[in-house]
Amino acid sequence: MLPQLNIGNLKVKIPIIQGGMAVRVSTAKLAAAVANEGGAGVIAGTGLSVQALQEEIRKARELTSGIIGVNVLFAASQFAQLVRAAMKERVDFIVSGAGFSRDIFAWGKEMNVPVLSMVSSARVAKLAEKMGAAAVIVEGKEAGGHLGTDRSVFDLLKEVVGSVKIPVIAAGGIMDGYDIKKALDYGADGVQMATRFVASTECEASDKFKDLYLNSRPEDSVLIDSPVGLPGRALRNQLTERLAAEKKLPLENCDSCLKKCSHAFCILDALEKAVDGDVENGLVFSGEYFHKIKEILPVSQIMKQLIAEYEEAQGDNPRITLAQ
C-alpha cells in the first residue's frame, strides 16, 4: 500500500499532489477529481484574476471535501494578491515556484495556511525550512514548464533528503507507479505529478492540447527561453520552432502579467492560445516523459492504475538506498 503523506496537519491518503499547471489547465474540476481519489488537488492561480481564482476555489469546494491547494508563480505580477486571496478562501495549502518569496511564509503563518516551496537544491530547501515551509517540492529537469535546474529529480533527492526535517516531495518526470516507487525509495515522502493528469477527462484543456501529448514523439520535448527568465520545457510546434529561429517574436499587446519580462514573446497569450486549442501558435508545456501516456482516462482510473503499478513495483524491486 502507498504510505500516507503528512504535511503539518494535512493527511493526504494517497501521497500524490497533482501539479498546478497554468493557464487554466489545472482547474477546479481536475483538482477536485484528484482530491476525491485521496490525493491533493491543485488549482493553478497564475494567469487568473483574483475573482476568477476565488471562483475556482469555491467551485472545487462544491465538488470535493478533499484536500485542495493553489499554485502561484512567484514571477507573476499579481503574486501577492493571488496568494493572499487563496489563503483567505481557506485553501489547504499554497505552492510557489519560479523564484523564492520570503513574504509568503509570513502570510501563511498569519492565515494558518501551509506553504510548500519548489526547490532545486539542498541550500534552497534548508532556507525554505528555516523560513517556515511545511514541505519542499524537489523538482528536476524532467518537469514541464519553468525549470530551476538541469539536474535529474533523483540526483536532487540524494542531496535534499536528509538535509531537512520537513516532508520532501519529488517532482519532474514522475509518470507512473514505478516512478512513484523509485521516488519513495530515494527517500521522498510523496510525489507531485502534473503531465500525467493533463491526459485526463477532467482536465479542461482543449482536446487538441491533450492530443498533442498523445501524438508527439519523445524528441519533441524541447526547451525554450521563457520571458520569465528561466528555461521552460514544452512540446515542439510552430511557436517553439519560431522561437528557436528568431529568438524574439513581436508583441501585439502587454498587460504586464510578469514582474520582470524579457518580452521575447507574450507567454500569457501563448499559454491561453494553447489551452483553447491553437496548439501550433500556443505554448504547450509538458514534462519530458509525456510519451509514456497512451490514452486519456478519468482521474479515478489513472489513480487506480498508479496504485496498481506501485504495488507491482513494490513486489518486484528491492528498496533503493541513497548510497546507490
From TrEMBL:
Q: What Gene3D superfamilies does the record tag this protein with?
A: Aldolase class I
Keyword Transmembrane applies = no
Q: Name one Pfam family in it.
A: NMO
A Gene Ontology molecular function term of the record: dioxygenase activity
Going by the entry's taxonomy, the superkingdom of the source organism is recorded as Bacteria
Q: What SUPFAM superfamilies is this protein classified in?
A: Inosine monophosphate dehydrogenase (IMPDH)
Q: Which UniProt keywords apply?
A: Dioxygenase, Flavoprotein, FMN, Oxidoreductase
What role does this protein play? Nitronate monooxygenase that uses molecular oxygen to catalyze the oxidative denitrification of alkyl nitronates. Acts on propionate 3-nitronate (P3N), the presumed physiological substrate. Probably functions in the detoxification of P3N, a metabolic poison produced by plants and fungi as a defense mechanism.
Name of the protein this chain belongs to? Probable nitronate monooxygenase
Organism source for this protein?
Dethiobacter alkaliphilus AHT 1
